[in-house]
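B., you asked whether I could sanity-check this one before it goes into the benchmark set. Here's the sequence:
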Amino acid sequence: MDISRLKDYEYLRHLTQDQIIVLLSKAELLKLKPGDTLIQAGDEDDEEFFLLAGELDFHEANKRTPMRTLHASSPDAYRPLTRERPRPYTIAAHSPAAVLKVKLEDLKALLREAPTDSFEVKRVLREDQPESRQVFFDIYEDLRNNRLTLPSIPEVALKIRKLIDAGNSAATIAKAVTADPVIAAKLLRAANSPLFRGLREFTTCTQAIVRIGLKTTKQLVMTFTVKELFHAKRPSTRKHMADLWNHSIEIAAICYVLASKTRTVDPEQAMLAGLLHDIGAIPILAYAENYPHLQDSPAALAEAVREFRGEVGGIILQRWGFDEDMINAAREAENWQRDHTGEADLADFVIVAQYYHLLVQGQGEALPALNAVPAMQRVLPGEPDAEKSLALLQEAHEQVVEVRHMLAG
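And here's what the prediction gave me:
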């Protein structure tokens, strides 16, 4: 058998020549006559099959007419015949054919030692795990080996942040902001909004920055640039990203209003925490594009995001240089039972904002009782109940809408 030709096949291409020789010593070469059945629909075998020569017919269960015929010369012939188990098709020889039959465990054992780092190999080695966990394994391994491409702070936000932290004047900051007309317009609009507006309307970035302050300017510029990160290649993932962005805006708006009313934490900082609490979902959605099942199953994808976004989000914010308070807000965003000593922190506000949001969405049945959520007692001391909670949001509805409009604009 021509060993060099086997290097054209999926999975086998990652093996060294010596490994292929070992694999062939354990494999079986099947020679089929027309009509011979290779695989029966419903089989739960533990082999992989590679077509080397001839043609094979694929039949749906209990169907005599083949749905397709695979030729050894076609591109699809360089993949295993079918990887699903139980086998979805009956496969029979259409013409005289040669098929390499390999034990899956033998193939995996060699791939574990192969000098490669491809997604293709990682997928077959982890296929006994749910795809939601496979995504996390990919992210964790790339993170551990410094290969994980994490979202980066948008350039304009990073520049403004450095200038402000270095103690530059409002005029210097304004020059940097006006270099990005979109951000400048958003900052000016925010300064003139009911949230910050003084006695007169501002017409320049310098005036706006003096009015709202350097700290708020830094947070708002970061807030306005975050949307750049919520993008994806595939249309299906773009939909998830859009939903994620809209949810983040909603939580950010509620966080701002709650912080404005209680004055326990800085409102703009609370708003930014709300906007960034799901940042860990972005690389998860990007990695999930490699898993067809997750793309085809919104429920499975949502579960993968829900399970791992907190940990990944904490890693991203740590890399961005945020303090522990902001990092914890991402890690603990849906930990209803989170408890700690001291006053309410950013994580408490995000938890309460998410609780309110789900309550308003009519999903209260899935939530713990209000008095069983420690964050609720810190953000709103006393004995909050569902009616009072909804009344609070209704009372502040216009302010929530204003914040949402500012972030979405």
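One thing to flag: The chain has a mean pLDDT of 85. Otherwise nothing jumped out at me.
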